[in-house]
Each structure stands twice: as C-alpha cells, then as structure tokens.
Amino acid sequence: MRVIDIRERSIDLSRYRDPSIPSGGLTTSIVALTTDAVRNGRPVIGYGFASMGRFAQSGLIRERFAPRLLAAGDVDPITAWTAMMKGEKPGGHGERCVAVGTLDMALWDAAAKIADLPLHRLLRQRLGNESPADDAAVPAYASGGYLYPSDDPGHLRDEMQALRDQGYDKVKIKIGAAPLAEDLKRIEIALKAFPGPHRVAVDAMNSYDARQSLDAAKALAPLKLMWFEDICDPLDFDVQSRVAEIYDEPVAAGEALFSAAEAVLLDRHGGLRRDRDILLFDPVHCYGLPGYLTIIEALEARGWSRRSFWPHGGHLFSLHLASALGLGGVEMNPLSFAPFGGLADGAAITEGHAMPPDAPGIGFERKTHLAALFATL
Amino acid sequence: MRVIDIRERSIDLSRYRDPSIPSGGLTTSIVALTTDAVRNGRPVIGYGFASMGRFAQSGLIRERFAPRLLAAGDVDPITAWTAMMKGEKPGGHGERCVAVGTLDMALWDAAAKIADLPLHRLLRQRLGNESPADDAAVPAYASGGYLYPSDDPGHLRDEMQALRDQGYDKVKIKIGAAPLAEDLKRIEIALKAFPGPHRVAVDAMNSYDARQSLDAAKALAPLKLMWFEDICDPLDFDVQSRVAEIYDEPVAAGEALFSAAEAVLLDRHGGLRRDRDILLFDPVHCYGLPGYLTIIEALEARGWSRRSFWPHGGHLFSLHLASALGLGGVEMNPLSFAPFGGLADGAAITEGHAMPPDAPGIGFERKTHLAALFATL
Predict the structure, then answer these.
(1) Looking at the domain assignment, is residue B335 inside a domain?
(2) Considering only Cβ atoms within 10 Å of each terminal Cβ, which end of chain B, N or C, has fewer?
(3) pTM above 0.90, yes or no
(4) Which domain holds residue A8?
(5) Mind listing the pLDDT tens digit for each residue in A80-115?
(6) Which of B97, B116, B135 lies at the terminal end of a domain, its last residue?
(7) Contact residues on chain B for A87, CB-CB shorter than 8 A
(8) Residues A50 and A287: beta-carbon distance below 8 Å
(9) Which residues of B are designated catalytic?
C-alpha cells in the first residue's frame, strides 16, 4: 500500500467518565491515513490515536513523521516504520516514540482492512503465532479509580460497581494522589467490590519518593494485591529494587519506559522477579508494534515469558496485540478516556476475558462514538 | 518580566561549513520571546534555539510549552520553567526536554538583557559563583571533523588547519561513520594538525555495537586522545563500562541523556571514573539550565567535580554557563551549524580559552548572521 494522505488533530481527553471533572489538561492525537488501496469501491483508511494519559503529538507527526511516511512509497507497516525512523538519533525516548506509535497504529488498521482480517488474525499470520484464532480471548482487567476531586469514596464505589456490572473480575485503581491512609481506604472500597486475592491492582503513577515507596510497600503487602504498579520515578531502579526486596507480591513496571534499551536497564537493575512481576510497556508509546517487538525480544532473551507482559493502553489495539502475541493479559479502560477506551459496542467480558472485535482492521468502526470522531478527520 | 509574545520557526541546519553538503536533514527551532520589559524605549526580546544535531521542536513549543509560558504571568527564568513543566509526567526524556530548553535559553537572554548584564555575570550573581568575573574565560575545544562524502582526507586536513588558524589548540572529530581503519587515518590527520597528547578527541556518535566499541577502544588507547566520546548506544551502560575497563584514557558520555535520572544511572552503571572521565550533558537539551543544574547537583552529590562537565552545544549559551558555573570547559562549533556555532564576531581563542561576549544577554547581537536570522522572526 501507499499512504497518500495523512490527517491529524489534537483533542482533549478525560480520565473520568464525567468529562467535566478536571483531568490535568490531557490531550491526544487522532490520525487518519488514506491509502491507495481500494475496498468496496472506496479507499482504505487506517485510524490511530496517540496516548491515554499523556499528550497529543501533533507537531512531531506533522513535521517529522508524516512527511517521511508520505514520501516512503509502497510500504507495509514494517517498512513504513523503518522509513519513519530514518535519521533518528540513538537515545531520547520520549514524545517521538508516541508520534511514531500513533502512525503505526493507523498503518496496522489499514493493513488489516486491506487483508480483510481482524488485526489479531493478520498478526498471527505475520508473526507466526500458531495457536488457533478461537483462542483469541485475552485475560483483561478494568482500569480506573482516579481520585475524584469531591466525594471520592462515593464516586469510587459507584465506579467499582459499574465495572463489576460490565463483567470485569479484576480492577486497577490509582493511588499516590492522596495520603497513604486515605489510599488504603480507597483500596478497601475496591476490594469490597472485587473480593479475594490478586483481583485488585494499584498504580502509584510514578509519584512516590524512596520513603513513600517503602512505606506503601509495607502497608500494601498484607492486602494480596494483583500488583503494585509504577511506584517511583520510572528510571529510579534503585528504589524500585529496594521495594522488590521487601514486597513479595507482584510489582508492575515499564509503562513510562519507551525503548528496548530502557527495558534491559529495568531488567538489569530494577530488581524485578521473572516468576511473578508484570511488564506494562505500552505498544503505542514504544514506537508502535515494531518497537514493542524489540522489547519483547530483548526481555525474552533475558529469560522473561510473554505471559509477564500486560500492555498498558486499555484500548482495542492493545487487545489485538495481546491476543496475537500470546501475552499475559491486557488493560481495559471501560470508563476512562472516552471514546477510546474499552471494548467494542455491545461486547462483553466473559469469565474475565476480552475478545478483539471480529471486524476487518482494529475494529474502531464497532465503537460508534470513536468512529464518529475519526470521521471528522 | 511577563512574556507577551512567542515566535518560533524551524530552519535547516548543516554540519558542514559548506551547507550544500548533505547533512541528514537536520533542523532546529529558533524562538523570540517578547517581554513587557522596556530598555532604551523598546521591548526586551530574548532569543533562543533548539539544537545542534537533532531536530526542530516547533510542535511541542507551539502546542504545549509556549501557551503555558504565555499564561504564566510575571516570571523569572526559574518560575517560568516551573510553569512550563506543570503537568508533565515522569519519564520520557526526549524532544520535550529540547523544546523546554529552547524557551529557557530565550528566557535567560531576556533576563540578562533586562539586568543589563552579560548572562554569565547574571548567573554568577544568582548562582553564587564568587570567582571574579575577569576569570570568565573557559577552556574550549573546536568540534567538527564530520566525514565528508567526497575527498574526506583533503577536506578534513583543510578543516583542521582552519581551526588551528582560529587559535584552537584542542579539537574533536567524528568517527564511526567509516570503518575503523579509515577512521584511524582520519585521526592521524587531526593529530598532525594538533600534535601532542590529549589535544584530539573522537566522537563515535553512539554508533558502535559491543564488538566495535571494544575493538575501537583497543585501537585508540595508544593514541593518548583527549577523550573517546559517545561510544555505543547512550543507554547501553553495560558496553560503556566494559570499554572503561580496558581503556585507561578518558572517555566522555552523556550527550544523549537528558535528565538527572539518566545521569545517575550513567554514574551507577556506566563504569565512568570520576578522576578522568568527561560529562557532556547539553544544557539546552536537558530541559534548559534548571534541568542541567539538577544533573550537576545529582552528580556532585555522588562525588563528581564540576570540572568534569564539558557541556555539548558549541554555542554562546553553553559558553556563558560553563563560565558562570565553573565547569571544566566547553565545546565550540566554529565551522559547523552556522550561524549558531562558535564565538562572537571578531572574538578569538586565547591560549585555548574562550570568553563569553561582554554584551547584555547571551550576546547573539555580536554574531551578525545569527542576529539577522533572529530578526526575521
């Protein structure tokens, strides 16, 4: 295929189901790539978006990566990626990795539409996953539980109930924005809705310093959480490993690392334990699928299992990848970051598993509000 | 001061004195900040630019950081920096760090013009450097020696001679773009123009893999180079430390690291030796002066001396900082990256030292071609 037109727009994004609650000015980029391929009499268009929880990448997409992609001629998603990365320097893994990942998502959407296959099936073919496609369902948990600016306990309780009602049996909530004592009460609310060991995870969003990290680890250890995520600064492997020394339950890391080089450093120096800990790298934020695959390869070579990877993202693209690559499971954002998060319209969680949509491409067309947003491009 | 208008433009940049020689499509951002301060009946304007050797940051400046700066109200460069960084997430130190650094440079230019002082004098006051300002001269070396696409030996010889003629007594050339045997001949050309120990440095631009790094280290060791710079991937601390084990002469690192978190990792795991090795962090690329100061503080706390810092950049801003902070020395780009590199018009290198211009601000107005470029904003 050849990419003949690229459109991009930055839009506001909310962490909350009610988008009127202030959410830190988050934005994301939406893109539409028009290809020269024609299906059903119309050009195939691939759609993508940048980020759940960081910022739009309009400038980098428009100025640096879209021009390279438009000039690349006939491509598939892998050769397109190589063309986009031409001349990029080693190091500096921030922002550009998200810009490239956004375009990469749209390239895969287009390629799978051209192949008339759901993306996970195209990837199974290309990446040699021999497991039958009716094994496509992936363990999934619901992500949410941001601190509400008013009546947090009431809102959090309602949110947990809404996620249960959607069929989820595992949940992750945010901590670190409130004092630890308050967060422990918030975790209690989540545990009441999702009782039992290893069903509630907590995400400190890289907010704790050394003291806070260790204090939280001690307080959380008896709760048998699913995992303790993004504890301290993502590059503070010293504190990360000190937590792992005193916290026997699973920890999760890697959401704010964006390259294979950083992944290897995390493994070398972060104290993670291959028998239980969780790797959160976000395929879109890590230069897209080709970049994500270099991370999986680097860590598999160092003794990690694919089952340790639970990609951050909470959207359909991560779900296809987790299914096709045989990863451990996947995040879903059923109530956050609308209209990007969660499953296709009408799709349900079954016994804790999510299924990628059975439509050509990523299946954004099965999410009415998201499809309508893309159509404005 | 209050920033009332911000203009930005992306422009092409060349590594070569002759800009018609292809140079990898490098670009940089130039910015002009108009303040509400008035001097000599005119508003004070601060100027800055992004990068020597990476890419422009138009999008991030226009979409994310300029709006925050314009909304910040009364600021000085430090409070302005805090306003620009508001809501930024931990990790992901690439691109945005350069965008923030670009605006930071212009903020310091404006602040020093308002104070009617050369920047290094303003910084001496603010940062408490008690050494007399007539100690302002800084050890400087000339950077250049990129591989020429045709007749490299002849062009390189001419370039080395031109740098000698400008009074430089130390030089750095690039290696790694040619096979090692050819690079050894290129180093010989540089050594002929700059004979003696520790007067020629080489910069592999992070291009070597593990094998190449170790092979080069063995071949370079007898040459008594000033230093061996940016050897392997900037985050491959394993290879970096294996080189340091077999290479007794100085190595230099840090140009492609952009945060205090990465600087600490380099120190912890990169095998650097505090008695001889060189730290290249670029103040503009590391979120500007406030970010650069966090790196200096973190590494001083770990036992490094300020004399180990030789900031990358090759321009007047780095020169002011090196002077005011009492750093070991500074890079200059007399023939590369025109019109940004090198000293003020008519200024000379004296006994291997460079002196920041004695004009208010950074002194860009003393570089005719650069001032003319900024005036187009």
Answers:
(1) yes
(2) C
(3) yes
(4) 3-116
(5) 999 999 999 999 999 999 999 999 999 999 999 999
(6) B116
(7) 24-25
(8) no
(9) 174, 312
